[in-house]
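Need a sequence for this fold. Nothing fancy.
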């Protein structure tokens, strides 16, 4: 089984929605409460997201230290999505300390006069809901970094065929 949106946030800024990129540039992971982080995904009807298949990967690079990555399996939430049919996923309570630890490391580096870079990626695993999927499938991904804030569009109505590696991944998707 392969990924539906392989490392979607990292697949290329040329595919990203400029509104979402502007919103993400304002994120203050050193101070924002991780409990407010949410990802919303709209998949085409030809695909179904797998249970526990939506992940947020956060990588922190500080000074001369090797990057530290954490992979968070997100839980589906009853929160209202930014568009009809969008499913919302949030961090699990058990994972909040790991993300807070990344925040603390980044804040400590900044306090010591260092520099830190944070990269976030959304990875969603899916299966085929139909035997012959539409080759022109489209999907959307949004992210919210603060409770009560709106969702920023990362990718809006993106033709999945434009995602690097999609053709290979699509050929390996298993039926649901």
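Here you go.
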């Amino acid at each position: 089984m392969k990924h539906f949106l392989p490392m979607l946030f990292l697949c290329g800024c040329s595919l990203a929605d400029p509104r979402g990129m502007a919103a993400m540039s304002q994120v203050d992971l050193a101070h924002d409460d991780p409990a407010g982080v949410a990802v919303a995904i709209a998949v085409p009807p030809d695909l179904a997201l797998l249970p526990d298949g939506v992940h947020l990967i956060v990588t922190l690079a500080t000074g001369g230290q090797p990057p530290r990555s954490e992979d968070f399996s997100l839980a589906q939430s009853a929160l209202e999505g930014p568009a009809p049919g969008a499913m919302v996923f949030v961090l699990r309570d058990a994972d909040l300390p790991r993300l807070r630890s990344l925040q603390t490391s980044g804040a400590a580096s900044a306090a010591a006069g260092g520099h830190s870079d944070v990269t976030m990626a959304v990875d969603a695993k899916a299966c085929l809901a139909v035997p012959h999927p539409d080759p022109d499938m489209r999907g959307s991904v949004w992210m919210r970094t603060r409770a009560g804030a709106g969702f920023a569009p990362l990718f809006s109505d993106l033709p999945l065929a434009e995602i690097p590696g999609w053709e290979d991944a699509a050929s390996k998707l298993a039926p649901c």
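For context: Strands lie at 3-5, 38-42, 47-62, 68-73, 75-77, 87-90, 116-128, 138-144, 152-159.
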